[in-house]
């Protein structure tokens, strides 16, 4: 009994010495980890509404992705601007490639897949990628007649197009919106304009007196692209339609008066 009392007294002295020296016993240290009296109560709150939620983390990720998209878009715009403003011959191939993308049929499906893979979604800010319920419904495509007139030479495999007789000095209109990929002289056709439309189809306008557009111009349906000249005393227009790399009869897709 005496030995037990001595040991108990000795343990109390050891604990007291530890307290005086600033070393809390092990059981106290464990409790101090749970709550420190010196800690500011306003900075510590274990309430559920003060904890970081998964939604907040998700919003942070979305914000980071949006910033990445904006930075990539700005960088691409600045790079394209520098390429076209620069006079360096080193950048000419890049300028030609960009011009080719803008003036020829573009693989929108491939670009959309690239956006989905690296940027997490399709670039819906661009009209070519934006979709709606009405886009999913098939719609009948209607071409605009380039001039009002009568077909005097019908389509055949050798001519590749038709010849329309109209009135003197008539204005020639684009059959549909698209990019002007050629504006100049062509053997046998004289002054000619070629426009590429959605899906890669092309319309050819030949035997013009004047041309009002230039290559890389974007034209709208019905927009004036040139005027009629008189061939052998007659105001004639050569008109052709090219689809899937072959010429078709324009009268099969356009109604001429």
TrEMBL record:
**InterPro entries given for it?**
Cell_wall_metabolism_enzyme (IPR050570), Dup_hybrid_motif (IPR011055), M23ase_b-sheet_dom (IPR016047)
Q: Name one Pfam family in it.
A: Peptidase_M23
Q: Where is the M23ase beta-sheet core domain?
A: 159-250
Q: Cite a single GO MF annotation.
A: metalloendopeptidase activity
Protein known as = M23 family metallopeptidase
Annotated organism of origin: Thermoactinomyces daqus
Q: What is the lineage of its organism?
A: Bacteria, Bacillati, Bacillota, Bacilli, Bacillales
């Amino acid at each position: 009994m005496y030995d037990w009392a001595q040991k108990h007294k000795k343990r109390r002295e050891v604990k007291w010495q530890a307290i005086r020296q600033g070393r809390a016993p092990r059981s106290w240290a464990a409790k101090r980890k749970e709550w420190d009296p010196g800690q500011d109560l306003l900075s510590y709150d274990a309430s559920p509404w003060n904890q970081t939620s998964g939604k907040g983390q998700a919003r942070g990720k979305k914000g980071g992705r949006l910033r990445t998209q904006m930075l990539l878009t700005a960088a691409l715009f600045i790079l394209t601007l520098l390429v076209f403003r620069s006079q360096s011959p080193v950048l000419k191939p890049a300028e030609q490639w960009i011009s080719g993308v803008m003036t020829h049929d573009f693989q929108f499906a491939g670009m959309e897949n690239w956006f989905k893979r690296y940027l997490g979604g399709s670039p819906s800010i661009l009209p070519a990628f934006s979709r709606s319920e009405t886009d999913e419904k098939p719609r009948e495509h209607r071409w605009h007649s380039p001039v009002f007139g009568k077909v005097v030479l019908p389509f055949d495999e050798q001519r590749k197009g038709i010849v329309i007789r109209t009135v003197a000095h008539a204005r020639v209109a684009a059959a549909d919106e698209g990019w002007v990929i050629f504006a100049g002289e062509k053997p046998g056709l004289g002054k000619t304009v070629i426009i590429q439309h959605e899906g890669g189809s092309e319309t050819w306008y030949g035997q013009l007196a004047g041309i009002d557009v230039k290559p890389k111009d974007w034209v709208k349906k019905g927009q004036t692209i040139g005027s009629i000249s008189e061939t052998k005393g007659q105001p004639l227009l050569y008109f052709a339609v090219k689809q899937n790399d072959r010429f078709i009869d324009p009268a099969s897709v356009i109604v001429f008066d």
